[in-house]
Amino acid sequence: MWKFLHKLASPPHFYDLSAKMIPWFAIIGGIFIMYGTIAGLFFAPPDYQQGDAFRIIYVHVPAAYLSMMAYMIMAISAGIGLIWRIKLSHAVAAAAAPLGAWFTFLALATGMIWGRPMWGTWWEWGDPRMMSELIMLFLYFGYMALRAAIDDTVKADKASAVLAIVGAVNIPIIHFSVEWWNSLHQGSTLLRDGGPAMPAEMLYPLLAMIFGFTLIFGALLLGRVRTEVLFRERRSRWVRNLVCAQEGRNE
Amino acid sequence: MNERESEPPGLSQGLSSIVRRDILLAWKRPGDVLNPLFFFAMVSTLFPLATGPSAAQLAFSGPGVVWVAALLAMLLSLNSLFLSDFEDGSLDQLILSPQPLPLLSLGKAIAHWLVNGLPLVLVSPLIGVSFQMSGQTITVMLLTLFFGTISLSLLGSIGAALTVGLHRGTALLSLLILPLAMPVLIFGARTVSLAANDTAVSAGIYFLAAYCMLALTLAPFATAAALRISNE
Q: Residue A181 — very low, low, confident or very high, per pLDDT cuts 50/70/90?
């Protein structure tokens, strides 16, 4: 186990392994998303209250879940990088931030599109989950801005890792404090006592979408980490060998 | 020789001497202390000018205005927290000193609060009165600002340590700290408006006190880690 982890943390090995993993993630994720989209849009029954407008949850819920998941991945790998000084995990944190910010944006945008016909407003200040997502987006912006402001990669890695960890400690507090407001957002339908309050024809496409989004996120993340690793190791021998081999093949 | 063998000063002595040093430095340059205070008063004046002078509206928006102004004033003063130390090399000495760096970071934050936060708390009743707040509301506002400004000094010291030595640090510092400061703002401002409506306020004050304790225990370690990274 330790040997495997140790090997995984070495950039050339990761570069080879991820090349094999990405197609699997992308293909399986793509299949799940295809099933979820078709079943969710055409076969799931319309909601008795919301009609067809509810179908945006098939994008909204996976995006909202991934926006938090990406922050967790970012903070944990930043912490691992800070404590055990593993270069690769700093690259993972750096690659996860823009992806997380985009998923946060997607969750906010789909939430606003849904809120317009349902609540009659694009933006509801009193809703705690909207506010938490917005603050989350600001946290991502702060993280990326700090990274961009420091020229030295090693220093940028460490400083932004401290910020990511401080942010991770604060996220539950932020969430609780906005929760203190009166809520308009409907309670969670999926995670509650007594099982999900949703018929199976609606639920299975949603679960498929969540799973498919996660796999696609994994594929995108691995792809970004690969480019990040290549850039960071651009002066090392294995990258030079790689480029030379590539050029030899092209000639 | 005797000098070298002597024990380094104890923890409390290290803490008190850094607090005393920073207060003395601020005392020599009173402008730096007064500017955030004037800023606080002026931002509070801007809101009535922008929204109109009706007494009902002022009473309604007062708590929020005072809290936003206080938050911005604290941010304004935080930028220079480690700047002079970084520029003249005192920061290296702080990091090399036998005292643990988190303790010294705590001392810096305490001194920052005594110099910038406490005067702001003391001035706030004046603004509260001008916003038609009742005596009881002002008491609650003082309490929330007391705990809130301590938390902001500590939280801000993390951001100041991360951005020290960077170009264009001021805007970056706000971007880093404002999202983290939102719980303080929410509980501070909401508790004061609850007090203005004669509703129970203890929950908000307890929360701010708890947040303050959490910041006191954890923030100095983050600040110390950030200082070590920034000063490499």
A: low
In a domain, B123, yes or no: yes
Q: Please report, to the nearest 10 degrees, the dihedral formed by the alpha carbons of residues A95, A96, A102, A105 taken in order.
A: -150
In chain B, what residues touch A150 (CB-CB under 8 Å)?
166
- Compute the distance between CA of residue A92 and CA of residue A17 in angstroms, rounded to an integer: 15
* Partners of residue B232 in chain A, C-beta under 8 Å: 155
CB pairs under 8 A between A and B: 69
Domain hosting B226: range is 9-230
Neighbours of B161 (CB within 10 A): 28
**CA-based nearest residue to B180, from A61, A49, A143, A124:** A143
CA dist., res. A211 & res. A191, Å (int):
16
Q: How many residues does chain B have?
A: 232
> Could you tell me which residues of chain B have a Cβ less than 8 Å from any Cβ in chain A?
158, 162-163, 166-169, 172, 175-176, 178-180, 182-183, 186-187, 190, 207, 211, 218, 222, 225-226, 229-230, 232
Domain boundaries, chain A: 56-185+217-240
Identity of the residue in A82, A142, A180 whose CB atom sits nearest the CB atom of B186 = A180
Q: Does A155 touch chain B (CB under 8 A)?
A: yes
Structure tokens at B94: 């702080």
Q: What is the pLDDT of residue A26?
A: 94
Task: Tell whether B2 is covered by a domain.
Answer: no
A83-133 confidence digits (pLDDT tens): 888 888 999 999 999 999 999 999 999 988 888 887 778 887 767 778 888
Instruction: State how many domains chain B has.
Output: 1
Coil vs helix vs strand at A47 = strand
Q: Is residue B147 assigned to a domain?
A: yes
Distance CA A193, CA A186 (A): 15
ipTM summary value? 0.86
